[in-house]
Amino acid sequence: MLANTPLKKTEITNSAETQSADDKSPILETLLQLRKTKDFVQYYNSESKNPFYIAYFQSLIDSSILHNDILANILKSEVSNVDDFIKIIPIEDIKIVETKEEIEEQLIIGSVIIYFHVDDNRVACIPAQSVHGRNVSSPEIEFSVIGPQDAFVEGIDININLIRKRIPSSKLTFKEITIGKLSKTKVVVAYIDGIANDQNVDTVLQRLRDIEFDQILDISYIEQLLQDNTNSPFPQLISTERPDRVAAILAEGKIAIIADGSNHVITGPTTFVEFFTSMEDYYMSWLVGSAFRIIRFMAVAFSIFATPIYVAVLSYHYELIPRDLLATLTSSRANIPFPPVIEAIFLELTIELLREAGARLPTKVGQTIGIVGGIVIGQASVEAGLTSNILLIIVALAALASFTTPVYQMGSTIRLLRFPFIIFAFLWGGLGIVLCLTFLIVHLLRLSSLGNPYLAPLYPLRIADWKDAFIRLPFSMFSIRPFITRSKDIMRFKESNAKEKKDNKK
């Protein structure tokens, strides 16, 4: 077996001292840089007929691959040059590299390098990565009662497999790019060739290549770097943990981006309406799915406008309150020393604090904090005369309504939007709400997703795409792909064939 004789540091030091910077081999330069690292291992095997050197990061490789597949085959064979390793070792993707940068890159991704002399200019890089990851589990954020119960994990190969199982087509294409000067994160762009628009694909690939960032720890980094408007609170790409959602989006002619180490996949181009669609809408009757989708839009509108309308009415528009309700409001606010805006912001911030505390604490403790804290603080604030019980009900319902959005990023944006609306309502009443809404609509009209309009099919108006916007019509009417994708193949199927029932009649 391999002789456990370490490569002497004095030998490397002496070699480095007798050579100028221009004369140093790529191997020697790499060894000089990495030999101080604790988990970097270097060995010299003198028992072989042709002694060789071997080096690797112990923390990155699988020791069973090293001993069973690499060393066992090398010691049984007569190897005299690095090119022979490709023939005798039963591992794919063995590379022969010649530059210092390539050697370092192969080492840090979990390869074993083998060479015969320190002064050589060529080394064999053999993949021996140690793969650690969790098994495929059910979705935690986008959970659904009906439909598949598998979710993406942190392994990029497993995620590609989950997508390819749902689209077993040779036209499904994956292109890999490495991003991050330090992290060297593998990123894969997925699309269906012949359906996806070439301009959209080129836009994504170009923006990924233009990214200059030292570390990409999660795909959310890429999502923020790819957005058309990085100063907007609205997400312009959908982040999902569901493989079925990605498969459906790819079939529409859109693009998916997968990053190694992330259990989410981002897709685009997207529209504002898509953030309120759930995959469960397609697993139920179109009537039921449409009803739930309409409820979500109503819930979002209530979440944004309920508290600002309360502040505006009590501050400026008492005449809008029905006489029967006016007495109740007056009695509930009789002992409150603050104006409605302070009362509203206090409760909204309290809800956000409870939500943030519940999210950061362990699951069981977080649930207890959310429930008990909400009840205790709400009841205590009413009894102390800090808030009215009517506003407490409104704020609680508004917070509950904000959680109906299927995509988490949009839910956070909806909760943030309430605060500028409350301030505008306090300053100018109903006119302030309309003014703030105008600013919001203008901002949405100017937004785009990978160069495509964000408010489609509302603007520009695309009546044909309304079949899967605010409601979801039957699948027989989905014969044409959405116009926003500008697909190369716009037709899914012939609508006349889908509507015709060809039952066998005897």
From TrEMBL:
<dbReference type="InterPro" id="IPR050768">
    <property type="entry name" value="UPF0353/GerABKA_families"/>
</dbReference>
<feature type="transmembrane region" description="Helical">
    <location>
        <begin position="390"/>
        <end position="409"/>
    </location>
</feature>
<keyword id="KW-0812">Transmembrane</keyword>
<dbReference type="Pfam" id="PF03323">
    <property type="entry name" value="GerA"/>
</dbReference>
<feature type="transmembrane region" description="Helical">
    <location>
        <begin position="421"/>
        <end position="446"/>
    </location>
</feature>
<dbReference type="InterPro" id="IPR004995">
    <property type="entry name" value="Spore_Ger"/>
</dbReference>
<keyword id="KW-0472">Membrane</keyword>
<dbReference type="GO" id="GO:0009847">
    <property type="term" value="P:spore germination"/>
</dbReference>
<comment type="similarity">
    <text>Belongs to the GerABKA family.</text>
</comment>
<feature type="transmembrane region" description="Helical">
    <location>
        <begin position="294"/>
        <end position="318"/>
    </location>
</feature>
<protein>
    <submittedName>
        <fullName>Spore germination protein</fullName>
    </submittedName>
</protein>
<keyword id="KW-1133">Transmembrane helix</keyword>
<dbReference type="GO" id="GO:0005886">
    <property type="term" value="C:plasma membrane"/>
</dbReference>
